[in-house]
Design goal:
The structure holds 2 protein chains of 2 kinds. By secondary structure, chain A is an all-alpha fold. Chain A has 10 helices and no strands. Chain A has a single domain, classed as MetI-like (MetI-like fold), CATH 1.10.3720. Chain A is elongated and about 70 Å long. The two termini of chain A are 25 Å apart. In chain B, the strands form 4 sheets. Chain B has a 6-stranded mixed sheet with strand order 6-7-8-3-9-10, with helices on both faces. Chain B has a 4-stranded antiparallel sheet with strand order 2-1-4-5, with helices on one face. Chain B has 2 domains: 248 residues, P-loop containing nucleotide triphosphate hydrolases (Rossmann fold, 3-Layer(aba) Sandwich); 111 residues, CBS-domain (Roll), CATH 3.10.580. Chain B starts with a strand and ends with a helix. Chain B contains 15 helices and 15 strands. The chains are: A mainly alpha, B alpha/beta.
Chain lengths: 239, 370
């Protein structure tokens, strides 16, 4: 830190006021990129996870591939994709979606595997077809674990979206990047704090949503079965 | 056994490929008559559950033929087949994410009944199984074990299937609740007359619930297939004898009714009669007491001591019997009455206090030995 910087006012409130419409637009873009990534991630993960749950041999190769995807540094991934897909939303989304897959697949499979066997047996004995079993019994009972995965994937994605600023997208990450380039701390703070607020808010909303769609799991105090292992050991990804 | 056959197993075998942990069944044949409760009982690994599960094709037989109501189960869609057969398991398997009402409505909903009919049926079933209406909106984990078990039975009865398969349905509750559930189910079965295949490892439960018991040995070998009374009276072989265990005689007593054996005459005297008559009655039967009966009504009993110094029996003040039995009492109850009464016999009365006769220990043991 040099002396000149120390004299400068840290935050220029007027800049925030002047650029409120731009900040708002980037905030919306951030949400859009996140929601799109998690939604596409779910669309891909659900069928793959169901298949892996029913055909156990598929689980190991599936998690190996998505595991490798998960470990690729995001910067490297975007750099690699640029020649093919350019500075587009696709480039951003391919990366973002790729990072959600491991979390989502592992949680969906864990959720399905955690369905009590007696419930499954009773359902089969009463004449549920395998499709009815999946959508009326197994998926609803797997929901708490699946939702834990969705929360983790969403919060991770909110963080990762900022990195896509490097390829011209980035939502709030735009302010972080431009603030760093121009040494303008106000923009950096606006981008960081707002994405943090967004992550916490979205997580809270998902908790609320989970409670609404699984009212039965609230009343199980005291006699809860041991919860199936969730994949929370995969910590939130840092860019 | 007469009557039309509801479930028939012909030379049924099931071979499991590897160590699947399920018990194999070899060449089992059995006919189950409409409206009867057949209990499959045997040690673990005898294939009783495998046999039961082949009926609704939760386990596919390797060979042989199974028909339910005249139709070969292998020629039916398994999903359709199962919807027409009630199914209750030990762990119940209520759906934790559905309310009690929704759980009971499971099969009606699969069969796409309209909502009003479903609602009506749920109300009907909760009434039959004495489930409080307040429970209907709750989730399974908020209920006690006994309540959950009754919901399981209600759910299995929802579409009024003619056949019920029950795999240790009362195994997961404590003995007191189990006995209550068994009694309740017996009452229910009296009215509903379902054809029931009931699996248990508990011979006492089998004796209590069954019209007929099939005692299975390893590999699904039927060692004996007969009424509980017959199995207790004449076990087919050592395996059955050992499985039925000790107290065979006592267990049979619980199955036999007083009306099934000959009731004896006992010493009787009318209250107006002179003491001499009472003494003569006692001598005749070699007892030191005598029942006092007025116009067929049992007043009590007197003995030599209480008659001392009296002119008529009435003066001696007959003492009431502490217990008496009726035609519907079991011999076990009669035995209890014998060993706890001072007179050492069970007095049989009907319709309130009408004197019928007596049962002595000799009479009961003669019945058990024969």
């Amino acid at each position: 830190m040099n002396l000149a910087q120390a004299d400068r006012p840290t935050i220029k409130w007027s800049w925030i006021g002047d650029n409120s419409d731009k900040i708002f637009a980037r905030f919306i873009e951030h949400i859009e990129l996140t929601v799109l990534a998690v939604a596409i991630g779910l669309l891909i993960s659900v069928p793959l996870a169901i298949y892996a749950y029913r055909h156990r041999w598929f689980y190991t190769p599936l998690t190996s591939v998505t595991g490798i995807l998960y470990t690729i540094p995001s910067l490297a991934l975007f750099a690699f994709l640029l020649p093919y897909t350019g500075l587009t939303v696709q480039t951003a989304e391919i990366g973002l979606v790729g990072y959600t897959l491991l979390i989502l697949i592992r949680n969906i499979v864990a959720g399905l595997a955690g369905v009590p066997p007696d419930v499954r047996e009773a359902a089969r004995g009463m004449g549920f077809s395998s499709g009815q079993m999946l959508w009326r019994v197994e998926m609803p009972l797997a929901l708490p674990v699946i939702m834990a995965g969705v929360r983790l994937a969403t919060v991770t994605t909110v963080g990762l979206v900022t990195v896509t600023a490097l390829i011209g997208k980035g939502g709030l990450g735009f302010f972080i990047l431009s603030g760093m380039r121009t040494d303008f701390i106000t923009a950096i703070l606006v981008g960081s704090i707002l994405s943090l607020v967004l992550a916490v808010t979205v997580d809270g909303l998902l908790v609320y949503l989970e409670r609404r769609i699984t009212p039965w799991s609230r009343s199980r105090a005291g006699q809860r079965r041991p919860a199936p292992k969730t994949q929370s050991s995969i910590g939130p990804r840092v860019a | 056994m007469t009557g039309d056959v509801m479930i028939s197993l012909k030379n049924v075998s099931k071979v499991f490929d590897s160590a699947e942990g399920s018990a194999a069944v070899h060449d089992l044949s059995m006919d189950i008559v409409r409206g009867e409760t057949v209990v499959l009982v045997g040690p673990s690994g005898c294939g009783k559950t495998t046999t039961m599960k082949m009926i609704n094709r939760l386990v596919e037989p390797t060979s042989g033929e199974i028909t339910v109501n005249g139709t070969d189960v292998m020629k039916q869609d398994p999903v359709e087949l199962r919807r027409g057969i009630g199914y209750v398991i030990q762990s119940i398997g209520l759906m934790p994410h559905r309310t009690i009402a929704q759980n009971i409505a499971t099969v009606p909903e699969l069969l796409k009944w309209d909502a009003t009919k479903v609602k009506q049926r749920v109300a009907e079933l909760s009434d039959i199984l004495e489930l409080d209406e307040a429970l209907l909106g709750r989730y399974p984990n908020e209920l006690s074990g006994g309540q959950r078990q009754r919901v399981g039975v209600a759910r299995a009865l929802a579409v009024d299937p003619p056949v019920m398969l029950m795999d240790e349905p009362f195994g997961a509750v404590d003995p007191i609740v189990r006995e209550r559930l068994q009694d309740q189910f017996l009452d229910l079965q009296d009215r509903l007359k379902k054809t029931i295949v009931f699996v248990t490892h508990d011979i006492d439960e089998a004796i209590k619930m069954a019209d007929r018991i099939a005692i299975l040995n390893r590999g699904g070998v039927i060692e004996q297939f007969a009424s509980p009374e017959e199995i207790l009276r004449s076990p087919a072989n050592d395996f059955v004898k050992q499985f039925v265990g000790v107290e065979r005689g006592l267990k049979r007593l619980a199955l036999l009714k007083v009306s099934q054996i000959g009731i004896e005459e006992g010493p009787v005297v009318s209250p107006e009669a002179p003491i001499r008559d009472a003494e003569r009655a006692m001598e005749k039967f070699d007892y030191d007491w005598c029942s006092v009966v007025e116009d067929g009504e049992l007043l009590g009993w007197v003995d030599r001591e209480s008659l001392g110094g009296c002119l008529t029996v009435a003066e001696a003040q007959a003492r009431p019997f502490s217990a008496y039995v009726t035609h519907d009492s079991t011999l076990r109850e009669a035995l209890d009455s014998i060993v706890t009464s001072r007179t050492q016999v069970a007095v049989v009365a009907s319709g309130g206090q009408r004197y019928v006769g007596i049962l002595s220990l000799e009479r009961i043991s003669k019945e058990i030995i024969s």
